[in-house]
Design goal:
The complex is a heterodimer of chains A (about 240) and B (about 400). Chain A is an alpha/beta fold and about 240 residues long. Helix content of chain A is about 35%, strand content about 30%. Chain A contains seven helices and ten strands. Chain A is globular, with a radius of gyration of 18 Å. Classes of the chains: A alpha/beta (about 240), B alpha+beta (about 400). Chains A and B meet through helix 2 and helix 3 of A and helix 1, helix 10, helix 11 and helix 13 of B.
């Protein structure tokens, strides 16, 4: 399955150092891999294994210390912060463990936010945000604020926000970490559907094996290196 | 497009913390109100001084009898009348002088048909109307012939006309000034308050000869306590002053080294000094008010810094979904600007209202000029930008990962 398309993400010799009081902490020690368009990848590993650092780099939130990162053929490691912001806005969607919705804004306004930064007019972005909320099944809740929604609903709003600018990749960092198992199943089912039906590339960070099982490729990190990179059999879930 | 959204965002953020936003704004409100009010009062005071100076007459000298210091025995100015009518005539002949009038001041009770009114009585010549630039409201000023003959005619000020005659036409009526009958032949135009706060319209002017003979029964005929003279132009003032000095020293036979028995004063210069004092005063008031504006700005900066710290996570989220650094910068800058401009608007309303109140209660001709409003708005804008920029830059400089982790 991994070779089903051209490489959307290609990293070579990726390293990331963090200065600490006692010297330099090497969070990533040379990671090389590629992810094709339409893949569904689970990244696993204990805390401190470098998986979150790797995610931040792939998500263009950070730049590598050494090594190269090509996103859709473009060298990301040399881009300015404005260019990275544009990539995050148009090419990438984020779903976080803590949902990270703005609590004072309605669901609709939360989903419309990335469209504002994309420079879309008020009317157009409200329409598109409403359409995206319909897609995640929360069309009727668009005027609720996050606090008026359940955890699962909040995460679906967050997914709608990630989808709003129609990106090709979604990065999900422990998306079910704050959800009960039933809601987790629903959210993961929705992710699978997005991947299958819309061809959205999904990169999922988790430490739970049953969540990782929704993916079709598993990459395991340990001490800043990739120690496992395997395809997962269909219907494992 | 995105700016409209940013204003919406700012408005949303500010209305979320109403009390805090209001208190933050209060500094700007008070600052702007103070600036508007102080400038209005300052301008009102200046306008008052200006109109007082204009009413005084232009390029004006006053020549007082007696010296300001007179050797061992000091005599107050004007105490011993050393100036004569002829001195006035001689001064008038000087090339830089337009007119010169001897003035014999006093006060007396006026009576007309059962009404009485105590007021200033000035004896002078027709030149008085010229040096004071004093137009007539009705009738005419008395003539040189009236002065020569000691005619019993009088011109009266607006206040006297009102107090003695009410709605009646005073022209041709006979009033008694200290029992002596005088015919009113003219009513002077209104001049309002003088620099020292007296009502200039509360007076009667009669020929100086008549005043000395019929009213003051002065023992020193032909002599006066002071003269007023007008120079042809402001430029000629200095030359005119030395010419008057020289002329009078000759006429009074004052030798080299002897002290003058008169004092020439440039009234216009004194008035200008008063005007510039007022100007400096109003500038000072404005400056003090401006300080409170700056304090208001610091208040905004303080709250914006708190707000940036509080909303670190929000900033992280916004960055993660595609906000560029400059978008975050603008967001906080516009928030600071919105605060300062709303504060400015409220301050303007309060300041203009306060100025109006001061105007009606105190009677000062306060004036809120478009310039001072423009200045207040401009300064508020600059303060918003200046004190908003640092917190905004701090927000924009946050690392997205750190910010996302923040609380």
């Amino acid at each position: 399955m991994a070779e089903s398309g051209k490489p959307l993400i290609e990293v070579v010799g990726l390293e990331k150092d963090y200065p600490t009081g006692a010297g330099v902490f090497q969070a990533l020690r040379g990671v090389s891999l590629s992810i094709a368009l339409g893949e569904f990848v689970a990244i696993m590993g204990a805390s401190g294994s470098g998986k979150s650092t790797f995610m931040n780099l792939l998500g263009c939130l950070d730049r590598p210390t050494r090594g190269s990162y090509h996103l859709d053929g473009k060298d990301v490691s040399q881009m300015s912060s404005d260019q990275l912001a544009a990539l995050r806005n148009r090419e990438i969607g984020f779903v976080f463990q803590g949902f990270n919705l703005l609590p004072k804004l309605t669901a609709l306004d939360n989903v419309a936010l990335p469209l504002m930064y994309a420079g879309m007019g008020r009317q157009a972005r409200r329409q598109q945000a409403q359409a995206t909320l319909d897609r995640v099944g929360l069309g009727e809740r668009s005027h609720h604020t996050p606090l008026q929604l359940s955890g699962g609903q909040q995460q679906r709003v967050a997914i709608a926000r990630a989808l709003a600018t129609r990106p090709r990749i979604i990065f999900a960092d422990e998306p079910t970490g704050n959800l009960d198992s039933e809601t987790s199943r629903q959210v993961m089912g929705f992710f699978s559907q997005l991947n299958r039906e819309e061809g959205i590339t999904l990169v999922l960070v988790t430490h739970e094996a049953d969540i990782a099982a929704y993916a079709r490729r598993r990459i395991r990190f340990q001490d800043g290196r990739v120690v496992e990179d395997v395809a997962i059999e269909e219907a494992a879930a | 497009m995105i700016f409209a959204s940013l204003f919406e965002t700012a408005w949303h953020a500010l209305t979320t913390h109403r009390m805090r936003s209001f208190l933050t704004m209060l500094g700007m409100v008070i600052g702007v109100a103070a600036v508007i009010l102080m400038l209005a009062i300052g301008q009102g005071a200046q306008a008052m001084v200006r109109s007082a100076i204009e009413s005084m007459g232009s390029n004006l000298f006053i020549v007082m009898s007696g010296a300001s210091t007179s050797g061992g025995a000091r005599v107050a100015m004007g105490s011993a009348p050393t100036l004569t009518f002829e001195d006035a005539d001689a001064i008038r002949e000087l090339p830089d002088i337009v007119a010169a009038a001897p003035v014999s001041p006093g006060s007396a009770q006026l009576i007309y048909a059962g009404f009485n009114w105590s007021t200033s009585v000035f004896g002078s010549t027709p030149d008085y109307a010229i040096v004071r630039d004093w137009p007539m409201a009705s009738g005419s000023f008395f003539s040189e012939a009236d002065v020569r003959s000691g005619a019993r005619v009088a011109v009266i000020g607006q206040v006297v006309a009102r107090e003695l005659f009410g709605d009646e036409d005073p022209i041709g009526k006979v009033i008694r000034i200290r029992q002596a009958p005088f015919e009113v032949i003219g009513v002077l135009g209104a001049k309002g308050q003088s620099l020292d706060g007296r009502d200039q319209d509360d007076l009667v002017i009669v020929p100086i000869t008549s005043a000395q003979q019929k009213i003051f029964s002065s023992s020193l005929r032909n002599r006066v306590r002071f003269l007023m003279a007008q120079a042809v132009s402001e430029k000629a003032m200095d030359d005119a002053e030395s010419a008057i000095n020289e002329l009078l020293r000759n006429r009074h036979r004052i030798g080299v080294g002897q002290e003058d028995d008169f004092t020439v004063r440039n009234l216009t210069a004194i008035a200008e000094a008063a005007a510039s004092t007022t100007r400096i005063m109003s500038l000072l008031l404005g400056a003090i008010a401006a300080i409170s504006l700056i304090v208001g700005g610091i208040g905004i900066m303080n709250i914006m810094l708190v707000s940036v710290t509080e909303r670190t996570r929000e900033i992280g989220i916004r960055m993660a979904i595609g906000a560029r650094r400059r978008d975050v910068l603008w967001q906080f800058l516009i928030e600071a600007l919105t605060l300062s401009l709303i504060g400015c608007a409220i301050g303007l309303a309060l300041g203009i209202g306060g100025a109006w109140l001061v105007g009606t209660l105190v009677g000062l001709p306060v004036s809120v000029t478009p310039l001072s409003v423009l200045m207040a708005v401009g300064v508020s804008f600059l303060i918003g930008v200046f004190f908003g920029f640092y917190p905004a830059r701090r927000a924009a400089g946050l690392d997205p990962i750190e910010a996302l982790r923040g609380q």
